[in-house]
Design a protein that fits this description.
111 residues, alpha+beta, five-stranded mixed β-sheet, 5 strands, 41% strand
Length: 111
């Protein structure tokens, strides 16, 4: 962490037609997994979304077999919402998707 070396990326993206709802995403490069960077990125996105972007809901998803990613989301307070079968094609095959969500005590709102 002290080297300043690039180890991955993270972002929040607004959900279309849902003001205050965002998709969180983080990607940690090979060689940097298992060092807490994913959890740190997810915690930062939660803080940013709820504190600075006035979010009421965050969505997250991961390939179903990517247990490390959805365990990060659950450690950060996300709740399992569902499983989409054969949702994404990557690396020569179809993958199921696991969906997670986290909310704060605000209501859904119109634009």
């Amino acid at each position: 962490k002290d080297t300043g070396q690039f180890c991955g990326q993270c972002a929040i993206l607004p959900v279309e037609y849902c003001p205050g709802a965002y998709l969180v995403g983080y990607q940690i490069d090979d060689g940097f997994t298992g060092m807490g960077f994913g959890t740190e990125a997810c915690e930062f996105l939660i803080y940013y979304a709820f504190t600075l972007a006035d979010a009421y809901r965050l969505n997250g998803d991961a390939a179903y077999e990517n247990t490390a990613s959805w365990k990060i989301m659950e450690k950060c307070g996300f709740l399992f919402e569902g499983r989409r079968s054969k949702y994404r094609y990557a690396r020569g095959r179809c993958h199921d998707q696991r969906s997670e969500e986290r909310r704060v005590g605000k209501e859904c709102r119109s634009r």
